[in-house]
UniProtKB/TrEMBL annotation:
Upper lineage: Eukaryota, Metazoa, Ecdysozoa, Arthropoda, Hexapoda
Protein name: ZNF452
InterPro entries linked to this entry: RNaseH-like_sf
Top-rank lineage group of the source organism: Eukaryota
SUPFAM superfamilies assigned: Ribonuclease H-like (SSF53098)
Length: 588
């Protein structure tokens, strides 16, 4: 066992003190803070270190090196400043997570800090608790932190937008819990080879919500931040007159300053409009179904009794679903649940009289209900497929064309006396050992014809001029491509590029065009401009749902613009830079 060397006071004359414990002392240079092994604790090695690394200090007195050990006022100040910056940085990080959760700002003081305190005290002890108590997490502090981070994220979005070749946006306005009209604008742009969506503007419309007010708010924001209308390639809105009006709507006002921008009427809204028209008898069944559902759901006693009945009958569900017209999927789900529980509803209405109770003894009425449940289940499936944020115009066309073809196919099957395509209707009819009446079959055929006409009204048959964008390797697309001779020559080169063909299989369509080599840059630019526009307003409507969650009845005085930006954005602010930009203070 090697003998441990011990420190001697004379070693300070060589510029060394020691650290570690008494049993294993290690020499530490007071000049460069280098720590040596215990085996180096002897004058010859310490002198060699001083001569090699600090030759100008050879021969200095012990007092000189003793003074170097004493921290200066500046050292104390810098240490304190650094600690305060760390506290502020921690405050920013916690505030960021509060914003991402959509919770109230007071949660920092009332929940987050007590939880951290208990955890640190349990694991690390009271000394560490004293340190974290300096993290500022008051309501006002969290609010300021969120504002700071929101401004940083907004600036980054604007920078990326200005750097991009072009951008598109979806616009909508709605009223919040405080009856304040809120305008939301979400933009999409290419950040390198990646498409990005971010909230650009959350702005209150204090008076009217006319097209001029909406356009004025956006135009003012564009001017303030030097965003050019000339780079706008597309805008998506719903079908409201203030948005879609050809002469005085927001669409028309945008066309004056950005004639190159393509306007898109939200495909989900169009699909919903296409499905809203139905024959009188089917509409009557829908209305009566809603009344029956409301009778059971509106009263808490009826709701509890019906739940108990379903449990006793071992039904697949124990409650009905309310129908809300503004929710796209509500109609199909409510009708489907009512038909699944129609036996339980029939039994319930025997003990709880209702004017429509006899409808559950009517075969044709129940058959209509089963058909509505089936057809709206298919429509709901289509609706959900259109809500994906990565849906392209080609995807929309494919899904709508498939739906129209299925409607024609279902009508042909029905004319042949087949009903298997409507599963619940088919099972119900066979369970009763009956057949559909001619009148009922005519009603369903009429509804299917109406659906086909309405779908074609809102979704005109697509042309094939831009099909080369969906797959540039198909020869048939080359013939119809809306390109000049030079571009077609480049398309020929691309169609024979094996590496590009592999890339198309690996990447989403928009990203594929963005990652092509520079040789195809002109074609890529045209393809990206065609693919970039939104096909729906799904993102902005989801943003309004998030806004309603953040600014609820308990926080109805909140200006939620900063919170909603952080809540929606994937851009993470630079916490350290933000902390360094302000003066650190204690907890308050």
């Amino acid at each position: 066992i090697h003998k441990k060397r011990m420190y001697a006071e004379s070693y300070l004359g060589f510029g060394f003190t020691w650290i570690g414990d008494e049993d294993n002392q290690q020499p530490k240079c007071v000049v460069c803070n280098e720590v040596l092994a215990n085996s180096c604790m002897k004058p010859s090695l310490l002198i060699r270190h001083q001569a090699r690394k600090h030759p100008t200090l050879v021969g200095k007195s012990n007092q000189y090196f003793k003074n170097m050990q004493q921290p200066t006022v500046a050292d104390h100040f810098n240490k304190s400043k650094r600690e305060n910056q760390l506290y502020v940085e921690a405050s920013y990080k916690i505030s960021y997570n509060i914003a991402k959760s959509g919770k109230g700002h007071t949660i920092g003081e009332t929940l987050v800090y007590p939880c951290i305190k208990d955890a640190v005290q349990t694991v690390l002890g009271d000394e560490s608790v004293d340190k974290i108590s300096n993290i500022p997490l008051s309501n006002s502090t969290v609010h300021r932190r969120i504002d700071d981070m929101s401004q940083a994220v907004e600036l980054e979005v604007i920078t990326r937008l200005q750097r991009s070749a072009g951008f598109v946006m979806q616009v909508d306005e709605s009223t919040d819990v405080a009856n304040l009209a809120i305008l939301l604008v979400i933009v999409r742009y290419m950040n390198g080879t990646q498409p990005e969506e971010n909230l650009l503007l959350c702005h209150p419309l204090e008076e009217h919500t006319k097209a001029a007010d909406i356009f004025g708010a956006i135009d003012s924001y564009f001017s303030k931040h030097q965003i050019k209308w000339g780079k706008l390639d597309g805008v998506a809105t719903d079908g409201a007159k203030s948005m879609s009006g050809r002469l005085g709507g927001f669409r028309a006002l945008v066309a004056k300053v950005a004639p190159q921008a393509v306007w898109t009427h939200c495909c989900i809204h169009r699909q919903n409009l296409a499905c809203s028209k139905m024959p009188a008898n089917l509409r009557e069944v829908l209305d009566e179904s809603v009344k029956i559902i409301n009778f059971i759901k509106a009263k808490s006693l009826n709701c509890r009794l019906f739940r108990k009945l379903c449990q006793d009958f071992e039904a697949p569900h124990d409650s009905l679903l309310l129908h809300t017209e503004v929710r796209w999927l509500s109609r199909g789900k409510a009708l489907n649940r009512l038909f699944e529980l129609h036996r339980e509803v029939q039994f319930f209405l025997k003990d709880h009289p209702h004017p429509l109770a006899d409808k559950f003894n009517d075969f044709d009425w129940l058959a209509r209900l089963a058909y509505l449940a089936d057809i709206f289940a298919s429509i709901n499936k289509l609706n959900l497929s259109l809500q994906n944020r990565n849906v392209t115009v080609f995807d929309v066309n494919d899904k709508i064309e498939a739906m129209i073809k299925k409607i024609v196919f279902w009508k042909d099957c029905l004319m042949q006396g087949r009903s298997e395509m409507f599963e619940q209707l088919h099972d119900f009819v066979h369970s009763k050992s009956k057949k559909l009446s001619n009148d009922l079959r005519d009603e369903i055929e009429n509804h299917l014809c109406t659906l086909k006409v309405q779908f074609r009204k809102y979704f005109p048959e697509p042309n094939n001029l831009n099909d080369w964008i969906s797959n540039p390797f198909e020869e048939q697309h080359f013939e119809h491509a809306d390109l000049d001779i030079s571009d077609k020559a480049v398309l020929i080169d691309l169609s024979t590029d094996t590496a590009a063909k592999r890339l198309l299989k690996e990447k989403p369509l928009l990203q594929f065009w963005a990652e092509l080599p520079i040789d195809y840059q002109k074609l890529s630019a045209k393809a990206i401009r065609f693919l970039l526009p939104f096909t729906s307003t799904e993102l902005v409507e989801s943003a309004f749902s998030a806004y309603a969650y953040i600014k609820n009845k308990y926080r109805n005085r909140l200006n939620a613009a900063s919170d909603i930006r952080l809540y929606l954005s994937n851009i993470v602010p630079d916490f350290a830079a933000l902390a360094n930009s302000i003066q650190g203070q204690g907890s308050h």
